[in-house]
Structure formats: structure tokens, C-alpha cells
Specification:
Structural class of chain B: alpha+beta
Order of helices and strands of chain B: HHHEEH
Strand content of chain A: 5-15%
CATH architecture of chain B: Orthogonal Bundle
CATH topology of chain B: Arc Repressor Mutant, subunit A
Number of helices of chain B: 4
CATH class of chain B: Mainly Alpha
Number of helices of chain A: 31
Largest sheet of chain B: 2 strands, antiparallel
Distance between the termini of chain B: 35 Å
Distance between the termini of chain A: 51 Å
Largest sheet of chain A: 11 strands, mixed
Number of strands of chain B: 2
Strand content of chain B: 5-15%
Structural class of chain A: alpha+beta
Helix content of chain B: 40-55%
Helix content of chain A: 40-55%
CATH superfamily of chain B: Winged helix-like DNA-binding domain superfamily/Winged helix DNA-binding domain
Oligomer: heterodimer
Number of domains of chain B: 1
Number of strands of chain A: 22
Chain lengths: 920, 110
């Protein structure tokens, strides 16, 4: 070993010694030859011949000495750098193509990693299970638990060593008037011990604080929250306003702990003891206290006893079910307990859909990388063909084939490495951009960080390796297999091999690349079409919202009593309507594309008619001027009166949309008919039939008279047709969280900020403690819609991929075609010298390349059809076979490919035949 | 290049080199000459194998090299056996003898 090291550092001396020794050998041989009677020159020549290939022998001798690989690696690297610097254009194009390909991959990997693979931030996640109460008839109907049920599960269980209860909520945080919404969890005292996490500072909750009704205002905040307060050392013990109530911060959780979800941070934890004060009506459970056995608000996560898993724990779970059904015969009727690993999100089981989107994105990114590799392979091949002579020379001079392949691979790896670094920088930048743009839409902190993680770096490096193997190995092997004599003699690298399968594309790599580009480009076109549709979605909601301002308010976040709300909102409505320039103003519980979904079960009163008699429908509680303000025309009947909208005691009336009218009263007039409503719709699911035995239906006392019919509006971007819906007078269907709509006569964009300020002042003039959640134009509300964001982000990502694909495909096609034409300069010269008109030569070249381009485009079109089918569920009101996308994308690519063919051909025919013939 | 003479059995070159160095230090050309001479020109050593073999033996510590002056007053690298090289020579001679006896037995010439 030491000798080897020694020889490595003394390699220069050893090298000269070796050369000298061999020269000595040849001299002695020469002398010997002269003695046998040869002339001086002849003796030396014969001696050299007898000795053999000096360079090759030296190489073999070097290999014996070891450390050669390191020596050669350094040599290869030096050589590779020299090669890359000699062709700056090629190097730049290659690094750009690779950087974009790798960048797209790393960005998507970063996203998918935090979406799907990043482990939960609590200890030993495999032991943690979430418990559901599942309907026996309908496995999709999963419910959480009430507090009494939680106590019962804790008491009678042989399954879990301990179990926590938690409710995820969005709360208003901060000072009055400047309320920020944040994700919070109301938790049992053992929450942190079950998750196996201890606070970075301060303490966790005491059992007494988590007891129902304890009302002890203490809170624990996340590391992110602390960071937002600039790591204020006085944060512990300070007061925090949650829904306008003061809480004392008693603990700070460690960095990286996200609570029970993996995708976003829980920012604030409060004990179950303050549930009744903090829980607002954002939950379906509105108004129920913690101890209400009818509630199903508590998510229960248990840590399995040692030795148990999801399968071996089943008997214990069965025992729990039996126990629970005995104790709560009404709530747990026809239900049993199931358990599953906690979802990566807050809600029950949408992980598969997200996994699917992630896989799609990864697939797209992989296609881009594949194309980048194909492209580079082409470029390297084309360039390598130019280097055939050099390589043949090196083979002739005693370079080993393995050695030459290694050299080419080193070059490839160097390129991939630089491209990878470029890609990484690009990916970090684009991830940050994506996070920032998502952050504007939703009030929570995504775990998704743009900081480089080890996994990310490993992924980037992996892509580099893949890239190297992908684009360097093929050309390297092909080139080093060359026949020395042929290449040393050959003229300008013309194709000497007669092609047996002339009808096949000349270069399958280029065809493949074109095919992939076309597939991506078509997808991009589909998504861009979606985005355009979504962009004009405002008019397609069915509303006219051109000059409408939205004010979003939640009085419960300001600690207001629910009983005062109606009057408060009434006063505010009147003030808004009286503002100069306001044509009309109204209050409503919901607005289109709010992301909320309120459903009620409906039953038609009176049998004997055709059509369905029960259904579930979206509901909205609205003021008397709502339809006028949002520009929804009444098809029949009338709007609500002021009395109906403001006083709960008025006769119950309802306005329905035409979809519902058609379904309930297909051949009669809906006006004057009556409906029964039930609230349980959302919780029980649409499959539940409204029956007399259901305790909830006992509330169906009053029948609502239909007084008006309006057109159906689109509530959700992905609805293929607008859903059934009803409108209740605000007094009968109200929530604390409301929207005010103000229709202005005109709303110039420059007055937007001033108008928003004015509206804020109006609100605080009515009640200074009223938390304003947002003030924005309806247009901005649509811009901020998460579904529109998804469609637009999808469009942006796919457009980027599409443009990438187009650039890569064109660069690749152009490079290869231009090169193959350039190689035929001599042949073209001969043809021209013999009198072929330039146009005929151009046509010939075009015809010859048409096969390659045509087959690529054809395969690409088929691929695009397939991918279009797959992504069709993500498309917004665009057919998977959208004619525009399917003509524009192939058209653009075909035109680009045509020019990639035609320009080099034209250049070739412009060359003077004499010069062409003299090439080389 | 056609070679009418016997090819060297693989692995025997090391043995031949060690043997030719048994009496005195020699340079590369000399070793090749000595092997030819001892085998009555039935064996020729290709230079392509000789020098790599010399470096390999040196690497293994069986021979060592020193610069000296050759018969015709030129600087040359002389190889000589080391102590372990001598031991190795004995061992290889022994195993060669066994091998050749065995092969002769198989061929029925013993």
C-alpha cells in the first residue's frame, strides 16, 4: 500500500525512468541488429518493430503499478474540461437542457416528497393508529367521536398504551382588526406524551387544564409561530389573542414538529378545557359543547401496545366496539370501530388522490428528463461522429477501448454534474415561488420547505447519475467500436453503412424525442386551455360580479355572542348600502368558489307526483338584496322581503334553483310548493335517506314554501353541471362567518385600495371588535381560489414542461438534421455540380427526413391521446380530445421540425460546389 | 507476426525472469537475451510482456531495480533478486517440477 502511494507521488520520476529503460532496450537491440549486418536506419527500424507498440506497453506497465485509475481520472477530467471549454456553444446548450430537465425533476421531487414520503414528525409513527366509527352499511361513512366516547375508549381498552384526542380548527389570532387565521388543535393533556414529543421550552398541558369546561386559557405554540415572532425570548408567558380571548403561552414545541398532520403545521395548541370557548362554527358540529354525546368532533389517535399491529390488534378493537355500542346505543347504532394509520392531511382518506397527482407530476418530470437525456445523447453522438477520427487515432496509438469509454463517460458525468448544480439552483428557486404563491391562497403554513434537504440532494445526485448513464454510455460504446482503418481514411464522416431497413427512421432517438415532446406539448395545451377557461370562470359561475366587493367577517372570532350577530350584521348591511356609489349590498353565508360546502337534506312535501321526493342540496343564507347584488335574475317568483331576511319569526320561505325545481317538480310549477329541510345532510352523507326513525329528522317541523326560482350557479370549479341548491332567508340560515357583497356603480382598479380602506373603516365604525377576515373585489376572490390556483399552477407547470419539451425537441432535431446534412456537403456538391437544381436537392433532404419526423409525430400523437385520458380528471371543462389542443400542439411542433430540416438543407445547397467538393 | 517458436505458458514468465536473475543482476534486454540463450532460442520473450512483468515482480518485492552502467558504458536499470524473490524462485521451481511431472504422466511419457 505504502509502496503504491509512493509510486503515485513519484509517478513523474517513474515515468521518465520507464521511458529511458525502454529506450535503452531499443538501443541495445539496434546494436545487435547492426552487428548482424544491417544498415544504421534499418537496424533501428527493425529494433523498434521488434519492441512493439511503445505507448501500449508503457500503458500496461503503468497499470501494474496501481493508482492508475486515479491518475487516469484526473487526466480524464482535465481532458474533459478542455473539451467542454473548446465548444462553449455545445457546453452551454447541454448544461441548459440538463439543468432544466434535472431542475424540473428536483422541484417535483421536492413537492412529492413532502406530499407523500416525508415521515410524520412524531415518534415511531408505525405504532400510531387513528380510530374511526364506521357505518356497517356504508364503509365510506367514517365518523370521529364525542368526549364521553373518548373517555370510554380510554377506560375500557386493551389495544392502546394511551390515546390522544384532538380537534383541528382554524382560529383567529392576533390583535383586533388585524386577525390572522391559523391552524390550531384543541387537545387532550396526553397529546404530546402519546406523540412522544416534549416542548423545546416551557411545559405541556396539565390534566386539569384539559378537563371539560376547565376554561383555563393556556396555549402552546409551534416553532414556526415563535419564528414569526423573531424568536422573542419573552414569548413564553406572554399573552396571545385567540378568537379575541387572551391566552397565556406556556410552551413552545421543537423545530420541525407539525402536530398530527404531515403536510401543514399546526401553529397553536390549546387544551380541551377551552373547547367550548374556542370551537367556532367552522365545524359541522356548530353549537355542541364538548361533553355532548351527540358530537363527533374528536379525532382519536392511539399508540398501540407493544407487540400489537393493525392486524394483531383486531380482537382488542372488537372488544372496544362491543363496549362502546353498549354504552352509546344511539350514536353507535349499526357502527363499528376501525383503525388506520393517520392521514397525511387533516381529513379522512384523500391520500390516494394526492398520491396520484404526485405520480402524474413525477411522470411528467421524468419524461422531460428522458427527453433531455435523449437530446444530449443525440448531441453527443453528432459531436462524437465528428470526433471519430480523433478516437480512431487514439485507438491506433494504443488507447484501450475501455479507457476511451471511460474518457467519454467522464465527460458526460462532468456535464451532468454541472447541469445538476444548475438544476438544483433552478429547482430551489421554483419551489420557493410555488410555496409563496400557495401561501397567499390558504391560511396555513405548509410543511413544504424550499430548503435543501438531504433527500433532495440525494435525488439530484441520483438524477445526475441516471443522466450520465443515459446520455453518455450509448454514444461512448458506439463510438469506441469504430473500425480504425475506415475512420482514419474516411471522407468527412459520410454514412458508409448501407442501410438494410431504409424505411425505418434514420435516427430513432430523434423520433422518440419528437414523440415525447409532442405528448408533453399536447398536455400543456390542454392545461393552458383549462386555465383560460378557469380565468373566465367568473362569468361562468352564473353571477355578474363585475363591480362587486366582498367583505368577509366572522364575529365569533372576535368573541361575540351568537345572539348579537344578526342585529350586528343587519346594521353593517345598512351602513354598506348607504355608502356613496353602492348600488346594493347584501349579506350571505357563502359565495361561489369559497371552498366551503354546506348541504341540507331536502324532502318534498306531498306525494303522488313524479320526480324524486328527497335529495341533498347546497344551501346559502342570503339577505333580501342578494340576487340583485350578485346579478342573478329571478326566473319566477320574488326575492325575500326585508322582514323575511331579518326576522326569524316570519313564515318559512325558500328560493330554489332551476335544477332542483326540475328534479322535484318535473312537470308542475314549483312556486308555492313546500319543502322539508334537515341539517344532518353533511355529516350523514348523501346516501342516508331521510327517515322518521333518524333522530335528526325530528327537527323537520316546518315546511318551507318556495317563493322564487333562480338559475343554478356553479359553486365548485370542477362541477360538470351546477348543483341543486336552495337559498334561505339570512335570518333562518345564518352563520357567524359571513360575506357581504357590495355592488358599486363603477369600480376603477385604481380606487380598489381606497375602497377597501373605506370598507374597513365602516366595519370598525359599527363595532371596533369585529374581526375582518378579508376585504377584496370578487375578481380577486376568484383569483385566490384554490381550485383556480390548482388549474393555473397545473397550466403553468405544464406550459413550462411544454415549452421545455418544444425547445429540447427543436434543438435536438435541428442539431441532428443539420449535422447529417453537413456531413453530406460533398455529396450535395457533386449533385449540384452535375446540374441538380437547389430546390430538388432541398426536397430530397426534406423527403428523407420526413419519415423520421412523421413517425415521431405519429407516436407522439398516440401518446398524447393516452396521457390526455389520464389527466382528463384534472382538466377544467376541457375535453380530453380537445380539438384546439390537438391541432395547435402538433402544428407548432411540425412547423418547428420542418424548419429544423429546411434551414440546413437550404444552407447546404447555397454552398459553391467547388468548395463543397474540396471539403476535407 | 507469426511465431514459430513455442509460446510461453501463462504464468511461467515470472519463473523464467526470476531464474535468469539467479546468478547476477541484469537489465531488461539482458533478461530477454538470457532467456533466449538458455532455451536455445526456443523461447522468445515479447517486450510487451517483459516490462509489465518486471514492474509487477518489483511491485511484489521479489526483485529490486538499481541504476548502473552496462557493458557498453551506458546507463541501464539492473534488476536483482531480493531475499523473498529467492524463496519465491525455489517455491516456483518446485511447483513447476510437480506440474511438469504431472503433465508428462498424463501424456504417458514418464
Amino acid at each position: 500500500m505504502i509502496r503504491k502511494l509512493e509510486s503515485f507521488f513519484q509517478r513523474r520520476r517513474l515515468e521518465t525512468e520507464m521511458a529511458e529503460e525502454m529506450r535503452h532496450h531499443v538501443e541495445l537491440q539496434t546494436e545487435l541488429n547492426r552487428k548482424s549486418g544491417m544498415s544504421a536506419d534499418e537496424a533501428r527500424f527493425v529494433a523498434l518493430r521488434q519492441f512493439g507498440n511503445v505507448a501500449s506497453i508503457q500503458e500496461q506497465a503503468r497499470e501494474v503499478r496501481g493508482w492508475l485509475w486515479l491518475e487516469q481520472l484526473l487526466q480524464d477530467l482535465r481532458y474533459a474540461i478542455r473539451q467542454l471549454r473548446r465548444n462553449p456553444g455545445f457546453t452551454f446548450a447541454a448544461i441548459l437542457v440538463l439543468g432544466l430537465g434535472i431542475g424540473a425533476n428536483v422541484a417535483v421531487f421536492n413537492f412529492v416528497h413532502s406530499l407523500l414520503f416525508a415521515p410524520p414528525t412524531y415518534a415511531r409513527p408505525v405504532e400510531v393508529m387513528r380510530v374511526f366509527s364506521q357505518a356497517k352499511q356504508n364503509p365510506a361513512d367514517l365518523r370521529d367521536f364525542s368526549y364521553p366516547a373518548y373517555r370510554e375508549i380510554l377506560a375500557g381498552n386493551t389495544l392502546f398504551s394511551d390515546a390522544l384526542a384532538s380537534v383541528l380548527l382554524v382560529v383567529g389570532v392576533g390583535e383586533k382588526g388585524d386577525t390572522r387565521r391559523a391552524a390550531a388543535a384543541v387537545i387532550s393533556a396526553n397529546y404530546f406524551s402519546v406523540l412522544g414529543v416534549s416542548p423545546a421550552q416551557g411545559r405541556t398541558f396539565l390534566a386539569a387544564e384539559a378537563a371539560p369546561g376547565a376554561g383555563n386559557p393556556v396555549a402552546i405554540v409551534s416553532y414556526v409561530f415563535w419564528k414569526k415572532h423573531h424568536f422573542d425570548s419573552a414569548l413564553l408567558g406572554s399573552t396571545l389573542l385567540i378568537n379575541s380571548r387572551p391566552f397565556i403561552i406556556v410552551g413552545i414545541m421543537p423545530e420541525g414538529f407539525t402536530g398530527t398532520t404531515a403536510l401543514f403545521y399546526t401553529e397553536i395548541w390549546v387544551p380541551l378545557g377551552v373547547y367550548d370557548q374556542v370551537a367556532n362554527d367552522d365545524k359541522a358540529d356548530a353549537g355542541r359543547t364538548l361533553t355532548d354525546p351527540m358530537s363527533s368532533a374528536l379525532m382519536i389517535l392511539g399508540r398501540l401496545k407493544p407487540g400489537l399491529n393493525a392486524v394483531t390488534g383486531q380482537p382488542a378493537l372488537q372488544a372496544l366496539t362491543t363496549n362502546l355500542v353498549q354504552t352509546f346505543p344511539v350514536q353507535q347504532k349499526d357502527r363499528s370501530l376501525t383503525m388506520a394509520p393517520p392521514s397525511r392531511f387533516a381529513s379522512s382518506n384523500n391520500d390516494t388522490a394526492v398520491a396520484w397527482v404526485g405520480a402524474l407530476l413525477l411522470g411528467m418530470a421524468a419524461i422531460v428528463l428522458l427527453m433531455a437525456c435523449l437530446n444530449l445523447a443525440n448531441m453527443l453522438l453528432a459531436r462524437g461522429t465528428a470526433r471519430r477520427k480523433e478516437i480512431a487515432l487514439r485507438l491506433a496509438l494504443g488507447g484501450g477501448r475501455g479507457r476511451i469509454i471511460r474518457q467519454l463517460l467522464t465527460e458526460g458525468f462532468l456535464l451532468a454534474f454541472i447541469g445538476g448544480v444548475a438544476g438544483l439552483l433552478l429547482a430551489l428557486w421554483s419551489s420557493a415561488l410555488l410555496t409563496a404563491s400557495l401561501g397567499r391562497m390558504i391560511p396555513i403554513d405548509l410543511v413544504w420547505s424550499a430548503e435543501p434537504q438531504p433527500a433532495l440532494l440525494a435525488a439530484a445526485f441520483g438524477f445526475c447519475l441516471l443522466g450520465t448513464v443515459g446520455f453518455a454510455l450509448g454514444p461512448a460504446i458506439k463510438l469506441s467500436r469504430s473500425d480504425v482503418m475506415v475512420h482514419l481514411k474516411e471522407h468527412a464522416g459520410e454514412d458508409l453503412v448501407r442501410r438494410r431497413w431504409g424505411f425505418l427512421p434514420r435516427n430513432p432517438l430523434v423520433s422518440a424525442q419528437l414523440a415525447l415532446s409532442l405528448a408533453l406539448l399536447t398536455c400543456a395545451a390542454l392545461f393552458i386551455r383549462s386555465a383560460t377557461r378557469a380565468g373566465t370562470g367568473a362569468t361562468e359561475t352564473g353571477l355578474k360580479t363585475g363591480n362587486v366587493f366582498l367583505v368577509e367577517i366572522d364575529a365569533s372570532l372576535g368573541g361575540h355572542d351568537k345572539k348579537q350577530e344578526l342585529g350586528l350584521y343587519r346594521r353593517l348591511n345598512e351602513r354598506f348600502a348607504a355608502l356613496p356609489g353602492v348600488e346594493s349590498a347584501s349579506v350571505s353565508v357563502d359565495v361561489p368558489l369559497s371552498g366551503q360546502d354546506f348541504e341540507k337534506q331536502l324532502r318534498r312535501v306531498g306525494g303522488g307526483l313524479s320526480g324524486n321526493s328527497s335529495a341533498s342540496a347546497k344551501w346559502n343564507g342570503v339577505g333580501e338584496d342578494y340576487f340583485k347584488t350578485v346579478g342573478l335574475p329571478l326566473l319566477r317568483g320574488r326575492a325575500f322581503t326585508v322582514a323575511e331576511a331579518t326576522q326569524a319569526g316570519e313564515p318559512p320561505v325558500v328560493i330554489i334553483n332551476d335544477r332542483l325545481a326540475k328534479e322535484f317538480w318535473p312537470d308542475g310549477d314549483a312556486l308555492g310548493q313546500r319543502l322539508l329541510l334537515s341539517d344532518e345532510g353533511a355529516a350523514a352523507g348523501a346516501s342516508t335517506q331521510v327517515g322518521a326513525t333518524d333522530p335528526a329528522v325530528s327537527k323537520l317541523t316546518e315546511a318551507y314554501e318556495v317563493v322564487g326560482i333562480v338559475p343554478a350557479t356553479r359553486h365548485n370549479l370542477f362541477e360538470s353541471t351546477p348543483d341543486k341548491g336552495i337559498y334561505l332567508p339570512f335570518a333562518r340560515g345564518s352563520r357567524s362567518h359571513v360575506f357581504f357583497q357590495l355592488k358599486f356603480a363603477s369600480l376603477p382598479p385604481e380606487s380598489e385600495v381606497a375602497t377597501a380602506d373605506l370598507l374597513r373603516r365602516v366595519v370598525s365604525g359599527v363595532d371596533a371588535a369585529l374581526p375582518i377576515l378579508s376585504v377584496k373585489t370578487f375578481t380577486r376572490h376568484l383569483d385566490g381560489n384554490i381550485q383556480i390556483w390548482i388549474v393555473r399552477a397545473g397550466a403553468a407547470i405544464f406550459s413550462l414542461f411544454g415549452v421545455l419539451a418544444l425547445c429540447i425537441a427543436i434543438v435536438g432535431a435541428y442539431g441532428v438534421i443539420a449535422y447529417s446534412v453537413a456531413r453530406r456537403t460533398r455529396e450535395i456538391g457533386i449533385r449540384m455540380a452535375l446540374g441538380a437544381p437547389p430546390l430538388a436537392v432541398q426536397r430530397m433532404i426534406l423527403r428523407e427526413n420526413a419519415v423520421m419526423l412523421g413517425s415521431g409525430l405519429l407516436v407522439g400523437l398516440l401518446l398524447a391521446l393516452g396521457i390526455g385520458k389520464i389527466v382528463s380528471s384534472l382538466l377544467y371543462r376541457v375535453d380530453a380530445l380537445d380539438p384546439v389542443a390537438f391541432t395547435v400542439a402538433p402544428g407548432v411542433l411540425a412547423v418547428a421540425a420542418f424548419f429544423a430540416c429546411w434551414l440546413p438543407a437550404r444552407r447546404a445547397t447555397k454552398v459553391d460546389p467547388i468548395i463543397a467538393l474540396r471539403t476535407e | 507476426m507469426a511465431n514459430p517458436k513455442a509460446d510461453l505458458l501463462q504464468g511461467t514468465l515470472d519463473l523464467l525472469i526470476l531464474k535468469s536473475l539467479q546468478l547476477e543482476p541484469m537489465h531488461g534486454f539482458g533478461i530477454a537475451g538470457r532467456i533466449g540463450q538458455l532455451s536455445k532460442d526456443m523461447l522468445t520473450v515479447e517486450q510487451g510482456s517483459l516490462y509489465p512483468a518486471l514492474y509487477r515482480l518489483e511491485e511484489q518485492g521479489w526483485i529490486k531495480a538499481e541504476w548502473g552502467v552496462s557493458d557498453n558504458n551506458r546507463k541501464a536499470k539492473f534488476y536483482s533478486l531480493t531475499a523473498t524473490g529467492r524463496k519465491q524462485l525455489v517455491a516456483e521451481e518446485h511447483s513447476w517440477a510437480k506440474l511438469s511431472t504431472a503433465i508428462n504422466l498424463v501424456l504417458g511419457n514418464a
